[in-house]
Amino acid sequence: MASALLYMVLIRVISGSLELTVAGLMYKTHDLEKALALNSMLALVGPCVLILTTGLGVAGLGDKISFPKIICIFSGVLLILLSLKMK
Predict the structure, then answer these.
(1) How many whole angstroms separate alpha carbon 7 and alpha carbon 5?
(2) Spatial distance between the Cα atoms of 71 and 62, rounded to a whole number of angstroms
(3) Total structural domains in the chain?
């Protein structure tokens, strides 16, 4: 297995474990304000994980894909992140 793929999987497993842990904490606190604060912290983690795993994937394929395709991939990620910020 390629090292980039292994790192991508590991990052996603850690991210998913963090999500489940925070969900448990939200349930355990029984407080809407604390749950909202925890949820806000997770909102910062998601985009970082997306950018990091995409970067690792592109770096792993760097010699197999062209530069315009790399630009398109990162443009797509940027559009996803921008659309999350729009109202």
Answers:
(1) 5
(2) 12
(3) 1
pTM of the model: 0.76
Q: Decide: residue 11, CB within 10 A, 0-12 exposed, 13-18 middle, 19+ buried.
A: middle
Environment class of residue 7 by beta-carbon count within 10 Å: exposed (0-12), middle (13-18) or buried (19+)? Answer: middle
Burial 41-51 (b: 16+ CB within 10 A, else e): eeeeeeeebee
The single residue listed with the structure tokens 């390629």 is 2
Question: What domain range includes position 34?
Answer: 3-85
pLDDT per residue over 15-68, tens digit each? 999 999 999 999 999 999 999 999 988 888 988 898 899 999 888 887 788 888
For helices 32-60 and 67-85, angle between their N-to-C axes, nearest 10 degrees:
170
Structure token pair of residue 80:
């996803």
